[in-house]
Design a protein that fits this description.
The protein is mostly helical. The chain has helices at about 5-35, 35-40, 45-55, 55-60, 60-75, 75-85, 85-105, 115-145, 160-165, 165-190, 195-225, 255-260, 265-285, 285-310, 335-360, 365-370; strands at about 145-150, 155, 225-230, 245-250, 310-315, 325. Helix content is about 70%, strand content about 5%. A hairpin with a 5-residue loop joins strand 1 and strand 2 (about 155).
């Protein structure tokens, strides 16, 4: 494998790390928002929930920026094709993300029940919708996205918004939401007491059970889907483009990589073990351990999906041979090498700062502690 191919694989792995970070950190916040009106039965309890993630939720959005920026710089053809084809979906995601910080900042500024209830529902919707959308995006990758290219690599999207909401995609969307809710519930357990703590523990059990069932169902469903196989591409040293390759469809082909390397089966096992570990830890009252187990579950689920798709990054259902792969959609070798250098410096800094912030702002949040705090949400 030459240097260019190695840098491409490194960035494929780094993109996976960024997606896991996004799922864990942003998914935690979104999960709290999704269950806000269940774990918080009063205004005081909802304020407790919001202030548990209050010091961190805006900083966690950095993972969104990192993910989008990484795709833009490392895989520009993926960025251009996906972001234009999924335009309506991106707008839906954007508007929910715009309303979310407004809800945090303005909800408690007016002491009026209708005002606060309205913003509570905004936070619920803006917590659930992005996780469903992101999960459904992965589901659509396994079925192919309806796009093709003309001779100058201009992409044309031929699908519809409703076409993206197919049964398999909705199932993966609910899987994503259930994992997010489990993370959010464990976060509530880490920071709340009394009835809120007990309600959150109950939600962990429900969300974890749903995630286990849907992850297993997803594996069976993927086995039945027609998967993509790259059977022909330009020779070594020749420019790789989606106009000069041959891709075929075959039942069960998405599990081909697992047949070639049985060690990959450890990834779904990690996913199941993480979810089960989170359930057992929550039941035992060890929510901090459960949080890390749930993060491990996210890593196993995303790692399983990425390994099954490899080397495909954006398969085409309109013309499978025009699918975008790791090899034909990346930036130049020099660009990837520079990005690896910057990543080696800044990602550890982000991880260090995030860990430090969580450590400094650890502890329980109570209604009494918020009563006289003018900076609290």
């Amino acid at each position: 494998m030459d240097t260019f191919a190695i840098t491409q694989v490194i960035w494929w792995l780094l993109l996976g790390v960024l997606l896991i970070g996004l799922a864990v950190m942003v998914g935690m916040d979104m999960g709290v928002g999704t269950i806000l009106r269940y774990v918080g039965r009063s205004d005081a309890e909802r304020r407790v929930a919001l202030n548990i993630i209050g010091p961190h939720w805006d900083g966690n959005q950095v993972w969104f920026i990192l993910g989008g920026g990484a795709i833009f710089a490392a895989f520009p053809l993926i960025y251009a094709t996906a972001f234009s084809g999924f335009y309506v979906v991106m707008l839906l995601l954007l508007w929910t993300m715009i309303l979310r910080p407004i809800g945090f900042e303005y909800r408690s500024r007016i002491e009026h029940r209708a005002w606060r209830n309205a913003w509570d529902w905004v936070l619920v919707v803006s917590g659930a919708v992005p996780m469903i959308v992101c999960g459904a995006a992965f589901g659509n990758l396994f079925q192919g996205v309806p796009f093709h290219f003309n001779w100058d690599l201009t992409s044309f999207y031929t699908g519809s918004f409703l076409g993206l909401l197919n049964p398999f995609a909705l199932m993966t969307g609910v899987l994503s939401l259930s994992l997010s809710v489990m993370m959010g519930s464990l976060t509530i357990m880490n920071g709340a007491e009394g009835q809120m703590y007990r309600r959150a523990r109950g939600v962990v059990q429900l969300a974890g059970a749903v995630a286990l069932v849907l992850f297993a169902l997803g594996g069976i469903w993927v086995h039945a889907l027609a998967g993509y196989q790259l059977v022909g591409s330009p020779g070594e040293g020749v420019a790789q483009t989606p106009l000069q390759q041959t891709v075929t469809l075959a039942p069960g082909a998405w599990l081909h990589n697992f047949a070639l390397d049985p060690l990959l089966w450890l990834l779904p096992l990690v996913g199941f073990a993480g979810i089960i570990g989170a359930l057992l830890a929550a039941r035992a009252g060890r929510s901090h351990v459960g949080w890390w187990c749930a993060a491990l579950g996210w890593a196993g689920v995303i790692g399983t999906a990425g390994s099954a798709l490899f080397p495909f990054m954006l398969p085409s259902s309109a013309d499978p041979s025009m699918s975008l792969t790791l090899w034909n959609s990346s930036s130049s070798e020099l660009t990837l090498l520079w990005m690896i250098g910057f990543t080696a410096v800044f990602v550890p800094l982000i991880l260090w700062y995030t860990s430090w912030a969580f450590w400094v702002m650890r502890g329980k949040v109570t209604p009494e502690s918020l009563a006289d705090d003018e900076h609290a949400y």
